[in-house]
Amino acid sequence: MNIEQARFNMIEQQIRPWDVLDTGVLELLAIVKREDFVPPEHRALAFVDTEVPLPGGQCMLAPKVEARLLQELAVHKHERVLEIGAGSGYMAALLAHKAQHVTTLEIDPKLAAFATANLKRAGAANVTVVTADGAQPLNVDGPFDVILLSGSVAEVPEPLLQQLKPGGRLAAIVGELPVMRAVLIRRGADRSVSRSVLFDTVAQRLRGFKEPPRFHF
Q1: For residue 13, what pLDDT band results from cuts at 50, 70 and 90?
Q2: I need a surface site. Which of 18, 30, 165, 213 has the fewest CB within 10 A?
Q3: φ, ψ at 68 (rounded to 5°)
């Protein structure tokens, strides 16, 4: 496989057509080596338009979803970011190029170690990987300018919204199969909250987050 050609095709054929037009984001996708964050047995899937399996039954988001979320969050160099669901560490590596510091939580200790090793190899010195359940009360140095949930949830828990600074943004994929939507939540200076739908998609559920009650007949 020609790695650079595959990377170019991913950007031009998958990501750009999905309304990812921010040149900074597109350039970053060419710099951060996605293949270095993919388990060796799935390396052939690094640039494919699909979720990539990870240890512990988890997975990386599809490339176009990662890119679109990164674009919509519009992270700045002075901002601190919290990510829920470190996975392979790839999204944290992308965020690290944009932010002052990234704290990324991973519930699976083996996956947290995998992400830590990948980020160290990539030279992402401004990322801290914490083994923790993002659905539980957080022992982190918040609040944050930006929060990203790298996976889906039935709904965004209120305690996570409380970790968002005034003027901050939170992106998450919300809902249940077959309908899930990526949403962007903004906290106003008066601590009011506004929500906008970004796009429809499907993503694996983040571990630890509650499912909505089911109706039984």
Answers
A1: very high
A2: 213
A3: -65, -40
Amino acid, single-letter form, for residue 35? E
Cβ atoms 131, 109 nearer than 8 A: yes
State which residues form the domain around 62: 3-201
Element (H, E) at 95: helix 90-98
Report the residue count for the chain: 217
- Retrieve residue 99's tokens: 């932010």
Encode burial over 81-120: b for 16+ CB neighbours within 10 A, e otherwise.
bbbbbbbbbbbbbbbbbbbebbbbbbbbeebbebbbebbe
Q: Contact, 89 vs 115, CB < 8 A?
A: yes
In this structure, is residue 207 part of a structural domain?
no
Q: How many domains does the chain have?
A: 1
Residue 213: inside a domain: no
Biggest CA–CA distance in the chain, Å, is 55
Domain of 66: which CATH number?
A: 3.40.50.150
Q: How far is 73 from 66, CA to CA, in rounded Å? A: 11
Do the beta carbons of residue 107 and residue 132 sit within 8 Å? yes
Is 142 part of a structural domain of the chain? yes
- pLDDT for 161-187, tens place per residue? 999 999 999 999 999 988 899 999 999
